[in-house]
Design a protein that fits this description.
This protein has 97 residues and is α+β, with helices and mostly antiparallel strands. The protein has one domain. Helix content is 45%, strand content 14%. It contains four helices and two strands. It has a two-stranded antiparallel sheet. The longest helix is centred in the N-terminal third of the chain and has 20 residues. The termini are far apart. The model has no long low-confidence stretch (mean pLDDT 91).
């Protein structure tokens, strides 16, 4: 069997992850999640999308309402909205492991 050498072009990957095309995809996904979340809470105007860039394009969907944590804890408002568009939802932060 022939030997294959693979060299990862990290600069090229970074360029792709920070591109306008990826920004568009991230924004569209975040918008779809926000729309689903708005449909499931009693204060739809409180659902926000904040786009940002780190080493890649990203966006955060939040419920900017004091009841938002309760809606998430009780109903999974954001988790269900994300899963509803086919996004993989993973827990982050604290907790055991």
């Amino acid at each position: 069997m022939a030997e294959v050498e693979f060299v990862l072009d990290t600069g090229g990957v970074r360029e792709i992850l920070q591109s306008a095309e990826v920004r568009t995809m991230v924004d569209e996904a975040a918008g779809r999640i926000a729309d689903r979340a708005r449909a499931g809470v009693s204060a739809p105007e409180a659902v926000r999308v904040d786009a940002y860039t780190t080493d890649r394009q990203a966006a955060a969907v939040t419920i900017a309402d004091r009841r938002g944590m309760a809606w998430q804890a009780r109903d999974g408002a954001l988790t269900r909205a994300a899963a509803g568009i086919g996004a993989e939802v993973k827990a982050r932060g604290g907790g055991g492991g």
